[in-house]
Amino acid sequence: MKRKLLGLTLEELKDVAVELGLPKFAGKQMAEWIYGHHVGSIDEMTNISKANREKLAEQFEIGCAAPIDAQRSKDGTIKYLFPVATTNAENNGKFVETVFIPEENDRATLCVSSQVGCKMNCLFCQTGKQGFEGNLTANDILNQVYSLPERDQLTNIVFMGQGEPMDNLDNVLRATTILTADYGWAWSPKRITVSSVGVKNKLKRFLEESDCHVAISLHAPIHSLRAELMPAERGMSIEEVVELLRNYDFSHQRRLSFEYIVFGGLNDTKAHAQEIVSLLKGLDCRVNLIRFHQIPNVPLHGADDAKMEQLRDYLTSHGVFTTIRASRGQDIYAACGLLSTSKKISESRK
Q1: Which of 146, 190, 193 is nearest to 36 (CA)?
Q2: Does residue 350 register a pLDDT over 60?
Q3: End-to-end CA separation in angstroms for the chain
Q4: At the N or C end, where does the chain have fewer CB atoms within 10 A?
Q5: DSSP state, 151?
Q6: Burial letters for 103-133: b for 16+ Cβ neighbours within 10 Å, e otherwise?
Q7: 85 pLDDT tier (thresholds 50, 70, 90)
Q8: CA distance 15 to 13
């Protein structure tokens, strides 16, 4: 199997050039063609000699793969199905879902995946019901951007698709490094948000090594309730997460947010709002309230709009800036918590 160039850093591309006996500067040329011009084949790198392109193509390929399916929502959201080229698990027909969300004022967000399935097994998440199928490489992550038909429309990327980014931290950091590097996409870190339930040691490392925005999956401000909803609470409690976050400055360009799915009668009372205020006191952050989208065999239901507005108003009036996030793509199972490729993977194995 040929090695892939998409997902390699500038220094690694220079190493490839040296390995093959090409001039070292050919690595910079490769980076320009891949990350600047988004070429689909090595033969398009026309300022590299034909002989050197042939030598490169013997062992390498760009490593891009177009989505094999697309579903369009009535609200304009598009869910793409991407084949996974390489995972840490056996490669036998795996896929990930990626969601393109066009918005007003020429804003467009891409929700990318970092794993096939997920280990976290949150009660309210369809991806967690799929189980863990494998980590995506940086190539797999970046291909969701590289091969997106609407790539040139993107203004923001959120790592909120399938998987827990901190559980695949090396590849997530590699991908965000290339997205923000001068030789790569040269995006501002302000355009990228990485979410996490909170993974001990990994979250700290991400905060130290990246300048991207951070979104923490909160969903319950009380340890016992959060542990029922999110088994990861037992590994790193929300109190530990917040205590760690207090060591970093979010008052300037880097933004900190907390995601909070509102469940009717479970985490939507005034007492829960008071706990949120107490937990987040002094943090420069915002809370995004999210509607719950029903998944099979889960005894949870969403709160009504009035309850969500009451929760928003209470938090905002007590110093925690809070918004209600618009639900997008629910009719095509692209909304928060609904992504899953378990059926497609099962079908591919028949």
Answers
A1: 146
A2: no
A3: 24
A4: C
A5: G
A6: eeeeebbbbbbbbbbbebbbbbbbbbbbebb
A7: confident
A8: 5
CA dist 229 and 327 (Å) reads 21
Distance of alpha carbon 243 from the chain centroid: 23
Query: Annotated catalytic sites, by residue?
Result: 97, 336
* Structure token pair of residue 334: 């692209």
Please say whether the beta carbons of 106 and 90 come within 8 A. no
Location of structure tokens 């005894």: 299
CA gap 103, 261 in Å, rounded:
21
Q: How many residues does the chain have?
A: 350
CA-CA distance, 211 to 231, in Å (whole number)? 28
Residue 262 tokens, joined: 């509102």
Helices (H), 210-338: 223-229, 238-245, 270-280, 305-317
pLDDT of residue 341: 82
User: Alpha carbon of 313 to those of 39, 75, 220, 268, 321: distances in Å?
Assistant: 49, 27, 18, 12, 9
Q: What are phi and psi of 137, to 5 degrees?
A: -80, 170
DSSP string, 21-61: T--TTHHHHHHIIIIIT--SSGGG-TTS-HHHHHHHHHHEE
Tokens coding 266: 């479970």
Residue 119 three-state SS: coil
User: Computed from CA positions of residues 302, 234, 163, 165, in that sequence, does the dihedral angle turn out positive or negative?
Assistant: positive
β-strand pairing of 256-262 with 192-196: unpaired
pLDDT in tens, 17-35: 999 999 999 999 999 999 9
Tell me the angle at which helices 238-245 and 202-209 cross, rounded to the nearest 10 degrees.
20
Q: Rounded mean pLDDT of the chain?
A: 93
Write down the residue that tokens 């918004």 correspond to: 323
Residue 88 pLDDT: 46
141 pLDDT above the threshold of 80: yes
Secondary structure (DSSP) of 174-200? HHHHHHHSTTTT---GGGEEEEES--T
Taking the CA atoms of the chain, what radius of gyration do you get in angstroms? Answer: 21
Q: What's the predicted TM-score (pTM) here?
A: 0.94
* Pick from 242, 230, 302: nearest CA to 268: 302
Nearest to 98 by CA among 108, 88, 87, 89: 108
